[in-house]
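Encode chain A's predicted structure.
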Amino acid sequence: MQYFKLTRLLLLLSIFTLIGQYSCTSTKENKKVVIGFSQTGINDQWRKSMNKSMQLQADFHPEIELKILDGNDNVKKQIEDIAQLINDKVDVLIISPVQSKPITPLVNKALLQDIPVLIVDRKIDGQNYTSYIGGDNYQVGINAANYIAALSSNKEKKILEIKGLKGSSPAAERHLGFSSTINTIPNLKITHTIQGNWEANSIKETLNNLLSKNNNVDYIFCHNDRMALGAWEVLKQHNLEHKVDIIGVDGLNGPNGGIQYVKDGILKATVYYPTGGNEAIKYAIDIVQGKKINKNNILETTIIDSRNADIMKNQFDKINQHQENLLAQQNKIKEQEETYASQSSMLKVLLALFILSVLLGIFSIYSGFNISKKKHALELYNTKIIKQSLEIKEIAKEAELSNEAKANFFTGLSHEFKTPITLILSAIESITEKTNTNSNKLKTEITLISNNSKRLLRLINQLLDYRKTEEKKLTLKASKTNIFQFSTKIFNDFKIEAKKRGIAFDLKTNNTDLDLYIDRNLMDKVYFNLLSNALKFTPDNGEIIVSIEDYKSKNFVTVSFKDSGIGIPSDDIENIFKPFEIGSNNTKASSGIGLHLTKQFIELHKGEISVRSDQSTIFTIKLYKNNKHLLPNEIINEPDIYIDEEEHTLTDEIEENIYQVTNVNNNDNKYDILIIEDNDELIKLLKNKLLESYKVHLSNGVDGVEKALDIIPDIIICDVNLPDKDGFVICEVLKNDLRTSHIPIIMLTALDNNESYIKGLKSGADSYLTKPFSFSVLSQSIKSLLYNREKLRYYYLNNVHKINPHEKFDAKDQEFILKINSIIEQNIDNSSFSVEAMAETLNISRVQLYRKIKAIIGVNISDYILDFRLSKAKNLLINSQLSVSEIAYATGFSSPNYFSTNFKTKFNITPKEYRKDLTNNNINN
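Encoded structure for chain A:
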């Protein structure tokens, strides 16, 4: 008994000693987190500033090792750098691309190897990255344009734009934001553009030649401060440095930065564009720690000019000094910790060695054999547990992937089901309501029902076929078939869609009399899947070719389907025939089983299917001749295929008539409706039904926000499931934009759950309809929202100065009107206060201000300001002892005569007569 107690005591002491020793050394054994950064180049000050901010932030975290590779502004060199970082298996990869397209495949490669990728400053093609950090380059362009507009004072001005490196996302987005805003300002015009490469020398010769021919330029907008400095040097050669104002981008602090250039008078202003280096390291650390971060992290930009240059410089200097002080303190603390840790570790190691030597000596005498035996048993048990744990994790991972794939599959199918159902119900409603419709329109509606019913049937059959293939219950029923006639019959079903979209659609063969043994039902589904995919992913005016090739000297035939669509990424090719697999570049609704079933059906014919994708995508089917490769029970007899050309011609006429737009009288008093929807059938059906009562504008979702800002419609109908950005995002963007926040938005969606409904309302949607929906419900929703908007407009028009901020029936519009009233009140006695001054105060253009006020109140902004002044003057006539002249000047009128004229126009009485009537009434009372 005493032996076991001693053994237990020694074991406990040994364990505690080992734990103490491990705790002393564990810190040293911790592996560092490696963050790799592929920088565009470090030749310019802005990039150096980004690298410095990254290194400073990384230095605050001893566990972080930051690797920065310089791409020398060369795409090939950057590709090599990124490949090296991927091979080094860094924990997080940060990239600032030289150009977008060449870098995109490497980002995809890193993500496939489970390396998170942060994109900084410049973007890649698509949204396939972990997170983006950078300024809003589009907003940079807008800010620069608005600043020039503010300087121009509505005078006609000419602008020269100097753009950054061609192919880089900042140059493209800054140009788009700048030009789109300038185009909305009548007095401003971009007369010339120069293509640079971010460096001053790249634009000097071109600018010099341009100014030698024509120096009639008022403003120059440069995409960065380095090119802006080069432009100033050329202007100085032509003695134009004081005539032309230059606006740059970057706003760096320091002797060679944009802020100093503003202080020195070289630049009129610079748009501060943050490097994002500090934020990139913070987000990288969050990822390593398992925290969630946003997909897109947009950094704020601002204009720096002579008014705030000193303030900005002082702030940046203080921040830099503060960071350097913190770093110095941290280095001192680190040195002290290392010294303490070294001494402490040495002492603990010596103590541990002494205790262990004593314990092991005693323990080896009394319990060596028992410990060895128990240790062996524990190792076996531990190995067994580890093996079982790994097996459980593997099974759980497989189950999770399977469940996720199936969930995605049924979600995709639900989207596919609900839009056809909407079309069917809308068509049935039309037939029911329009009993006097002529036969041709009736055929059109019935054809629409028939086509979408067949589409639903195919989707349901895909489900059943997938179940059969999984259970190995699908049997082949092959019959002798003329493959060209079979292909022609199916080919004709897709000709109308191809014709409508301008797609070159062709069927070729070198043997029109070729017979093959195929299961017509299954092969029909193969053709339908491949042709549907080709049409889905081929852009308008593209090309689709089906080729049947009979090799006379061989025992097989090939049928190839070639399209000029978006292609299949090389990383997706090997998995494209697996169930529930969807290409990484596929943004369209898909069930993910069509190609899987296609491969299963071809293999039932003992054939093969392959795919190749480079500039175009080609699916090739290989089928054997005769029937020797088939079993006797797999062969049946069926009649020959007959193609009725007349029936097909009639179907063409009916289907082409479905979307013909009825000519209606164009009435400028009609409300404007913008429909944002990517389903061609639904968008055309809604257009035809709404066109009689409204002016209808269309968008497929890609340009939805831009069209809304351009048109400023009275109401918007927006689908949720869109290819570029979902409807929730579009709704939120429009509702948060001052120019469009007043527009009612109706959301259409197949997502029938509370979470989606709440998300829609949070994004600012005014109404939320789920598919399938009744057109009459949609029509009434439009009328109700427009009616409520008119009521609100009437309220604002009749309560211009009595709006109660506590009545939150339309908070954003009310807040805007209150702000307008406040600005007018502050300038009530300023006769020179104008619409332009109002727009500048609100930081929007004069045109945008006019549209906004017109939409909310129904009057133009000039009349609104005049009405405000007159109402204020009327109140002063009642409640003050000021003379009419004093009241005229106090309310911002340039002369008493002008005041009296406007007062009489509004109130049908002169100010003097009005005050006299007030006095007489008071005496009589």
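Confidence is low (pLDDT under 50) at residues 24-29, 646-651, 653-665.
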